[in-house]
């Protein structure tokens, strides 16, 4: 794929991401996407066989970018495992104003919508979420090893925390405030310190 081709494909993905985060996957028609992207219909089908395949590519692109940010955050050698994890969750609160913004809620926005709509998109979302949980589990294990985290099972802890925060994100959207996330942060600290067993 040459640079111009890759740039056009990326442009369609970037525009589509903003529209879908705002409106949902089903509510964004192909004509609307093409109009916002400023590309002809033929160009879309040059890069994507269908809207569903576009959705899969969008999800995969999102998780690739997200994992790069995770890797950068968790690579800080000055912080112990607990500090890295708490910093990560605090960023969820910092970028959330109770509404769905561009860098935080593709998983929250699409999970319920596409799980019944598209099996391939559901699997793409699940694979991406599992990748995040794996990164979190690695950090929990670092915290166990350095003594800053008191849980017995890193994978189970990471999975439960991710589920807690996805739920808190949904409730923040409903409440249009960050109070559910603040409560999740308090629960996270207690859980990582072993005050509630996993």
UniProtKB/TrEMBL annotation:
Keywords attached to this entry: DNA-binding, Transcription, Transcription regulation
Gene Ontology MF term list: DNA binding
Domain HTH tetR-type: 6-66
Domain of life (superkingdom): Bacteria
Stretches assigned to coiled coil: none
Residues within the DNA-binding region(s): 29-48
SUPFAM superfamilies, alphabetized: Homeodomain-like, Tetracyclin repressor-like, C-terminal domain
One Pfam match: TetR_C_13
PANTHER family: HTH-TYPE TRANSCRIPTIONAL REPRESSOR NEMR, TRANSCRIPTIONAL REGULATORY PROTEIN
Listed name of the protein: HTH-type transcriptional repressor NemR
Organism ancestry: Bacteria, Pseudomonadati, Pseudomonadota, Gammaproteobacteria, Vibrionales
